[in-house]
Amino acid sequence: MATIVGGVGCSHVPAVGAAIDKGRTADPYWAPYFAKLDRARAWMAEADPDVCLVVYNDHANAFSLEVVPTFAIGLADEFPVADEGYGPRPVPTVHGHPDLAWHLAESLILDEFDMTLVNEMPVDHGLTVPLSVMYGQPEAWPCRVIPLCVNVVQYPPPTGRRCYALGRAIRRAVEAYEGGERVVVLGTGGMSHQLQSERAGLINVEFDTAFLDGLVADPDAVARIPHVEYLREAGSEGIELVMWLVMRGALSPTVHEVYRATHVPTSNTHNGLLVLEEG
Ligand code: DHB
Ligand code: FE
Question: How many CB atoms neighbour CB 278 within 10 A?
């Protein structure tokens, strides 16, 4: 059977990707943030998963606002890197795992999670920045990647509870797969940030810290946080945090917190990084 060996929560700030791509990680603005990544990267190198299931939101790059799937899974062999307006990031092509992805799709849909099936899509900063955070700048990504998109762009996004339940269904599906793949689940986005309007630049360290504490120790309670509380406390883009609940749901009820780091400033986001292992 395939196994889930750990989970990672990781912000996906595009400027972090640009700092890596342009060799700016030692700049005074960036160095304190990048110093916090070493421990997480060492864990990832040791865990050396065969597959990363990356839970992220597309930012109107693969899906325009004409069609917005609530949950979507990437089934392709290969996912090109999206051009988000400045040319595609200079990172390796993302290679999928069609066999496991189709198994997940079948298992999840028969488990009553109505996934949209995606045979072709470019992947944007929501997926590539977390890979860069965890792996740096390899010639090729060391793992296969299954993209799992969650709509948090167009109201109404799925609830935290639904995302948590999806994570649990992912765990059942992975454990029913016949291959021996070792899987790490990444939940991306967050933490508090708001990119536009009167409250642009909002950061709420207190809310984010309580979210992380709860996600580790009492995920059922965190899953009950309503949308309006994310909006009020973590800003309009803070809703991305529901994707961390998919990751948490895929882990066992008790987990071991391997590493946590948070940082301000990175662009407009309170940047979070959390590494969890099975408890
Ligand atoms: C920023 C953060 C995001 O999650 C995103 O998708 C775009 C921008 C930011 O902090 O700049
Ligand atoms: Fe985002």
Answer: 13
